[in-house]
Amino acid sequence: MVTAHPDDVDFGAAGTVAAFTSSGVDVTYCIVTNGDAGGSDRTMSRAEMAALRQDEQRAAAAVVGVSDVRFLAHPDGMVQASLELRRDISRVIRQVRPERVITQSPERNWAAIFASHPDHLAAGEAAVCAVYPDARNPFAHPELLDEGLEPWSVAQLWVMSPGDQGAGMAVETSATVERKVAALLCHKSQIGDPEGVKQRIYEWARAQAEGAGLPQGSSAELFRVTLIP
Ligand SMILES: [Zn+2]
């Protein structure tokens, strides 16, 4: 999972992550920032906020069975799809050697402007570039070879919450949506109205399931899936 901020993975894919880990799939979180521009408490130093948000993300990860959580510490609010970020994500891909990478959409969704935070677009773009071609190309970021990291080809790229921008694949999360909500509620510094968030998540999950033709009352998360030969 590659996302810009602590909590992004939980909004977009924690139900799917819980389904994966329940079936024995190992999941790693690679979070581009520490979330140091989050929250609205101006009395808290940004370093304290970063530490708090990392703790919140680790707690949320534990709820859905994930213990490998890595932070790339790019500055929150200033993420760019730079060669440096592409290299940093490629490094994690070569270390972890995943079959599948799930990330945010690099395309702005005009119907969901909050989901299209510039950091999300940049993190998504850098992650897509890291999957193809950087992580698999030995001549991209040659310093990674110097670090002993051999090229790695990711077989599947999933973009979470593709919105209206493409055919989505639905992962049914009826059995895990409660854990998704519990994970989200770990991000206490970001959530002022836990009941409201809970409500919204259930409604959203049901709407996605309904849109995908699943039986009424089921929950789902949507992804755009690209298979890479
Ligand atoms: Zn975010």
Describe the structure.
The protein is an alpha/beta fold. The protein is 40% helix and 16% strand. It has helices spanning 8-22, 46-63, 83-96, 118-131, 142-146, 177-184, 194-211; strands at 2-3, 28-33, 68-74, 100-103, 156-160, 169-172, 220-227. The protein has a four-stranded mixed beta sheet. Helix 2 runs antiparallel to helix 6 (177-184) and helix 3 crosses helix 4. The two termini are 20 Å apart. It binds zinc ion (ZN).
Mean pLDDT: 95
Q: In percent terms, what proportion of residues is strand?
A: 15-25%
Unreliable spans are: none
Order of helices and strands: EHEHEHEHHEEHHE
What strand order characterises the main sheet? 4-5-7-6
Number of helices: 7
User: Which outline best applies?
Assistant: globular
Please provide the count of β strands: 7
Distance between the termini: 20 Å
Radius of gyration: 17 Å
Bound compounds, each kind once, are: zinc ion
- Please give the share of residues in helix: 40-55%
| Largest sheet: number of strands, sense, barrel closure | 4 strands, mixed
Which structural category fits the helices and strands? alpha/beta
Q: Which secondary structure elements does this structure contain, and how are they paired or packed?
A:
Elements (H helix, E strand, L loop, with lengths): L1 E2 L4 H15 L5 E6 L12 H18 L4 E7 L8 H14 L3 E4 L14 H14 L10 H5 L9 E5 L8 E4 L4 H8 L9 H18 L8 E8 L2
Parallel strand pairs: 1-2, 2-3, 4-5
Antiparallel strand pairs: 5-7, 6-7
Helix pairs in contact: 1-6, 2-6, 3-4
The chain binds zinc ion.
